Amino acid sequence: MNPVFSSTVDLAAAIHNRKISAVEALDAHLAQIDSHNAAINAVISFDREGAHERARQADAALAHGEAPGPLHGVPFTLKDMHETSGMKTTVGFPPFADYVASHDSPVVVRLKAAGGVLMAKTNVATMLSDWQSNNPLFGRTGNPWNLERTAGGSSGGAAAAVATGMTPFDVGTDMQDSIRLPAAFCGVYGLKPTENRVSLAGAFPNPGGAARSVRLMSCLGPLARSVDDLALIYQIIAGPDGHDTDLAPVQVEAMPKLDLKTLRIAFAPSFPGFPVAGEISAAVESLARQLQGAGAVVEEAKLPKLDLHDDLAQGGALIGMMMEAAQPKPPEQPTSVSRWFEALARRDRSILIWDSFFDRHDALLCPVAMTTAFPHCEPGTPIKVDGKEQSYWMLPAYGAVFNYSGHPALSMPCGQDSNGLPIGLQLVGKRWSESRLLGIAAAIEPVTGGFRRPPGY
After folding, report:
1. Is 154 one of the annotated active-site residues of the chain?
2. Taking residues 418-422, what's their average pLDDT?
3. pTM of the prediction?
4. Which of 105, 129, 133, 154 is catalytic?
5. Does domain 3-448 fall into CATH 3.40.50.300?
6. Where exactly are the structural domains of the chain?
7. Residues 105, 178, 270, 405: which is the catalytic one?
8. Where does the Amidase domain start and stop, copy by copy (predicted)?
9. Phi-psi region for residue 437, left (φ > 0), alpha (ψ -120 to 50) or beta?
10. Confidence (pLDDT) at 321
């Protein structure tokens, strides 16, 4: 087997069955990083010594007959925003350059308890605030399909590392398409769960122990090379953890095996007023036809009667108010409580309208972003889409709609454009139905062909 491009599920099984040792799996991934990372700059902080010790312990445990966890001995990376004991967590922000948390975040605790071997961190946008992964501490991450183009952000290092076999999986954050957009740009899978499904505790460096300001729209979720891997990691990290009180006590179910012939799929090649490259909208239509030919009930979506541009603006306003509330301010400049509640009421209306849509459809197939990976540029630079300049700030629009509504959504690779760059399409489902959404994606995966390795890796 080739451990660096094996699925997480297969690699865990191979270690469990002692076809490969945990140390061998780790060394293979570190060698892949050493061979390719200098050009891509996806992996930015290491714990080689600690990872080797944990891998040796994993092998010894198997030798003594101890029951393995679902990730026993599997090496992995994490986006540089999770608090980790003994490793720096910087979010690419100079004031956090030397910050080391005193303990692991709940998500890290769960991954380690499942037997995972954390070996390194992956690059991000500064403070997770852009759709390119570039920062003053570690520089920029290139796209493995074309180094002159971005891997996306803010989880760009994670997506590039997964795509190139440097890691079997990673866990990113998604407040405005920050998992799905880089997953699409790099040709891998990425899941944004329903809001309040995965703990946000310790999901950002917090040296001073300040009150957590991000309470809405942000989600943690896995990036991987298969739907099965997304499902495995999601089941490990999801659910109440005793730290994040916002988490819903909803059962995390196993991914069901679904037949395409039982599914009702709506598709939207674009959203009203949202720009999109013609090759992306054509990929949506092509996949819809293939699914219909395979027996699914497919129809072009009658999208909810919402002003989606206004939803994006309202989502941005809520993010701004959360950030504002987190900053010290003089008494004469209080945060407007009434403005906050009005914004939440507006959001509730949008959520309920989308809920009604998903009562009629099992999933919505649509673009992840308005373009495939674009050339590195200064944030704010207009982006060319089919030769026409479009606003940089519309890059995450198709994904951000579902951060605002809280619905689960995933990005899945679906071929390449005429420049040889991956096209990622988005699949969106009913709230609290991640497992079913993953089952739908698994049923579709054979039609799309799944993950394709970038040339040269």
Report:
1. yes
2. 98
3. 0.97
4. 154
5. no
6. 3-448
7. 178
8. 24-311, 339-438
9. alpha
10. 84
